[in-house]
Amino acid sequence: MARMSRARLGTRRDKTAVWYDRTRVGTLVKATNGGISFAYDADWLAGDAAFQWQARYL
Q: Which residue has the higher pLDDT, 16 or 33?
């Protein structure tokens, strides 16, 4: 139900492809409600170039 409600509210999402050294890493998505998410591309995760990203809080 949440998806249907969100669609009715007209939540729009802006998507941006994320690249590293000519290879697509994933997609960054920002919703109009301010939410931000990132999804890795399956080819990136399966490839040899993939590296683990570690969050650092300052």
A: 16
Q: List the domain range (segments joined by +) for residue 17.
A: 12-46
What is the tally of structural domains in the chain? 1
Q: Give percent above pLDDT 70 in the chain.
A: 66
Q: Which amino acid is at 2?
A: A
| 38 domain residue, yes or no | yes
SS3 state of residue 30? strand
7-24 per-residue burial string, b: 16 or more CB within 10 A, e: under 16: eeeeeeeeeeeeeeeeee
Q: How confident is the model at residue 1 (pLDDT cuts 50, 70, 90)?
A: very low
What φ, ψ does residue 9 adopt, rounded to 5°? Answer: -75, -10
Residue 58 falls inside a structural domain: no
